[in-house]
Amino acid sequence: MLFTVPAFAHDNHGPHEKKIFTKHFDRTLFNITEHAAFSVEILLDDSEYPIGKGVVGIVLHNAKDSDVKGARITLALKNMETGQSAPGAPTITDKGNGLYIVSGLNLRRQGRWELAVTVSKDNVEDSVRFDLPAALMKLYPKGRYSP
Questions:
Q1: What CATH number is given to the structural domain containing 73?
Q2: Whether the predicted pLDDT of 77 surpasses 90
């Protein structure tokens, strides 16, 4: 089954370059980066995949829907009302096969927050933003998504 989600609409690829991204789990955040170079799936807890307590997982795929290994990921969590960044710096560990474990990142905070995720790999850099807690209220089912 293929889903096209309007919130993921991007204009930066031609009509012959159909890109499909896989979302593996149900209770996760998911979006396709601004220029459709990567998909970012954020595992919030241990309910569907054992990532550990107090950490989140990030699953990355490239435009060919392949696992992204050895990427550089930058995370920025900012309070939307004050403009202040969340205290502390998260630690990101590449577990292989497109899975990254992030410790020190609390996404369940009071107020409105923006999580910006920037992915760099092989001279390609692209980013995506999640508005919290709104993004937590509308979780898309696992499946295949097109920008």
A1: 2.60.40
A2: yes
* pLDDT tens figures, 51-60: 666 789 999 9
pLDDT one-digit tens code per residue, 27-50: 899 999 999 999 999 998 766 676
CA distance 37 to 66: 11
- Residue 3 belongs to some domain of the structure: no
Instruction: Give the Å distances, CA to CA, from 121 to 34, 62, 79, 86, 125.
Output: 15, 9, 28, 26, 7
Calpha distance 129→57 (Å, rounded): 16
141: which 2 tokens?
């089912």
Which DSSP string corresponds to 82-119?
A: T-PBPSS--EEEEEETTEEEEES-----SS-EEEEEEE
**Do the beta carbons of residue 48 and residue 42 sit within 8 Å?**
no
The domain in which residue 100 lies consists of 23-142
In a domain, 107, yes or no: yes
- Which H or E run contains 127? strand 124-132
Q: From the CB of residue 144, how many other CB atoms can be counted at a distance below 10 Å?
A: 13
pTM flag (> 0.90): no
